[in-house]
Design brief:
This protein is α/β, with parallel strands linked by helices and 660 residues long. The protein is built from 22 helices and 20 strands. The protein is globular.
Length: 660
């Protein structure tokens, strides 16, 4: 749309500098601009053909343009042609020359010389000049139609320019400042603030709206939960009890629960989720438990069925695809003959209809997109929502993602779990890693070997199939070694996981498909091949698959230790088991842009704002949103423009029943 074009801002800016005499060129990596006339063409014969060189003079000196693969310029820049020339210049024995240049035919005074050049992201078939022409046309024709969104009081408070002025300034900057490339010019700040304010208001308005909705409260006590706790072979941790009590407070309040439970890997979030599910089931309603992978869905199903079947709870697994068995299950769900449904994105298919969905549990929240979560919530008039994540989320991102959720943290691991010892070896020391793996397996333990790829590729990285053969023929000969990855059929994956849980498989070679939720207490050793290929948060998730039993566990990172950044990341993993510290280090070492794939988190796609880089603006916008809603919760009077813009820009977050 034209609106998309107006908001398609440059990703960077280049300063061509003031026009200067050739004799005052400094050379180097900075761009410089000169003007002159073409005085000669030269042809140099090389092995690859004829190389065109064009000599330009301004009376103070000459510059030679080295035209690699640009012989057509002989027709464009004929002798006597006046031109403006900008690029990076180097001094040679013959004087100044450049191979990295652009030009504009005409003289400085008679051409529209743009000192600051906007640089746009281009798609195939669109060159910079064509895109620039389209953008300038859209600005001239449609910019006058853009409506102001921020009230004058806010613009004056923060010194922001008007919206039309800000948009034009980003496409056609009038003055050069370093803040342009840091996205900190006044125009940038105004538009970033506006996006964050609209989104913060949409979340807070949704929260206010949800707080006024009344649902039938669950009883504070649940006989089903009490019976379940009696069957558990372990006691809940203090943190698990505290978080469960917070959830019960929500369920019994008569208001709709929207709660995020954050807990490090192995902290026992699944048990808290099952307690919450039982509490809702005991009040006569159904529960949907949505997880990101089929392997995890199968694991949760098997575990939940084992724990709950004796209590008479009807647990079922819903998979993708079409068959007679699935059709029968869909009928049971619609008739209310299923209490707890566990599944992946299959749960959001249109054919899945619940009789009375009371609670939606979403595990590993960041792996689902916004619309996927919203669709699941559409399956009930107003269900309670419990979101669980093991990925520690920085406070600023939590503000953006979960501004309308209450947050609980399970900050304690079950008793008896020992810290995991982590070692790092170079790839050349691979034999040391597998000696230790074999020793553990000989002692009766089981282990994982994680590879970044399934099969051989052009990149020289370890793959599942190659490592499987090496383990079977050499390092783990005599033991049962199998592989598991995302491309295997569901039934085969399920069978392999069951055999591994029963102890029939000693070593499982896998991709990062095992990153979340796999729980086999006897698996106490892990080797991660090419560990440098994984982010810190992902390495921590993988490592969390071991250390779930009473015995000491060992994680070995095999890495190509080239580069200080790799050594630093491996050192963080070796030195701590604390997921929150690892997340902070990941943010520090990798920079905000890479820390979380913002899109995979389901963060709305902002046009200019970035929740990780612009956290200080984000906080100001949230504070301003709170002030505005305290003053005028309906956004009337001076805030009408904000309300209109919210409905256009973030309406789906308000009306889809979205959870942030």
């Amino acid at each position: 749309t034209v609106e998309d074009l107006l908001y398609f801002f440059p990703r960077a800016y280049r300063d061509r500098g003031q026009v200067k005499p050739i004799r005052k060129l400094t050379g180097g990596k900075s761009m410089e601009t000169v003007q002159g006339k073409v005085i000669a063409h030269k042809h140099q014969y090389t092995r690859k053909g004829v190389l065109l060189k064009i000599v330009v003079s301004d009376g103070t000196g000459t510059v030679t343009l080295v035209c690699f693969n640009r012989n057509y310029l002989a027709q464009v820049l004929r002798r006597g042609t006046p031109l403006l020339l900008w690029g990076t210049f180097q001094r040679s024995a013959q004087g100044w020359e450049t191979a990295n240049f652009d030009f504009q035919v005409g003289e400085h005074q008679s051409t529209s010389f743009e000192r600051i050049v906007p640089v746009y992201s281009l798609t195939e078939g669109l060159n910079p000049k064509r895109l620039r022409s389209i953008v300038l046309g859209a600005l001239d024709q449609f910019l006058p139609l853009v409506e102001e969104v921020l009230p004058l009081t806010i613009r004056e408070k923060y010194g922001f320019p008007a919206k039309k002025e800000a948009i034009r300034e980003l496409h056609c900057p009038t003055t050069w400042e370093e803040d342009l490339n840091r996205r900190r010019s006044r125009a940038h700040l105004a538009l970033i603030f506006e996006e964050f304010l609209l989104f913060a208001l949409s979340l807070k308005m949704r929260r206010l709206r949800m707080d006024t909705v009344r649902v039938k409260p669950c009883p504070v006590r649940s006989a089903l939960v009490e019976r379940f706790l009696e069957t558990l072979p372990f006691a809940l941790t203090t943190a698990q009890r505290r978080v469960y009590e917070e959830i019960v407070g929500d369920l019994a309040s008569g208001r709709v629960m929207n709660r995020l439970v954050q807990g490090d890997v192995g902290s026992g979030k699944t048990i808290v989720a099952l307690l919450s599910a039982l509490h809702v089931i005991d009040s006569g309603r159904q529960v949907a438990f949505m997880v990101p992978t089929e392997i995890l869905a199968e694991q949760h199903y098997l575990r939940s069925r084992d724990l709950l079947s004796s209590l008479g709870v009807r647990v079922h697994l819903l998979k993708g695809g079409v068959n007679k068995e699935k059709k029968m299950l869909l009928e049971k769900i619609a008739q209310g003959e299923v209490d707890l449904v566990i599944g992946t994105h299959a749960l959001i298919e249109e054919k899945v209809v619940f009789k009375d969905l009371g609670l939606v549990i979403v595990d590993e929240q960041h792996r689902f997109g916004v619309i996927q979560r919203a669709r699941l919530k559409e399956k009930a008039t107003i269900p309670h929502t419990l979101v669980m994540t093991a990925t520690p989320i920085p406070r600023t991102l939590a503000l953006t993602l979960y501004g309308d959720l209450d947050i609980s943290i399970i900050d304690e691991k079950p008793a008896g779990r020992k810290p995991i010892e982590t070692l790092c070896f170079s790839l050349q020391e691979r034999f040391k890693a597998y000696q230790r793996l074999r020793k553990k397996v000989e002692e009766g333990r089981q282990g994982y070997v994680v590879c970044p790829a399934i099969e051989e590729s052009e990149e020289e990285i370890s793959n599942v199939k190659e490592i499987l053969e090496l383990l079977r023929s050499k390092w783990m000969a005599g033991f049962q070694v199998e592989m598991i990855h995302g491309r295997l059929p569901s039934r085969e994956k399920e069978e392999i996981m069951r055999r591994f849980e029963r102890g029939e498989i000693q070593v499982l070679v896998a991709t990062s498909v095992i990153e979340v939720g796999i729980d086999v207490p006897n698996a106490s050793v892990m080797v991660i091949e090419n560990a440098e290929r994984f982010g810190l948060a992902q390495l921590h998730q993988l490592r969390g698959r071991i250390g779930r039993g009473p015995r000491e566990s060992l994680c070995i990172l095999l890495a190509s230790l080239n580069g200080e950044d790799v050594r630093q990341r491996m050192q963080v993993m070796v030195s701590t088991n604390d997921g929150f510290r690892i997340a902070e280090e990941d943010l520090r070492l990798r920079g905000p842009g890479e820390f979380y794939g913002v899109r995979q988190h389901g963060v709305p796609e902002f046009r200019l704002a970035n929740p990780l880089e612009d956290w200080s603006i984000l906080e100001k916008a949230h504070n301003e949103a709170e002030f505005i809603l305290r003053k005028d919760p309906s956004l009337g009077n001076e805030y009408v423009t904000l309300r209109k813009a919210i409905e256009q820009r973030f309406g789906r977050y308000l009306f889809l029943g979205e959870i942030g």
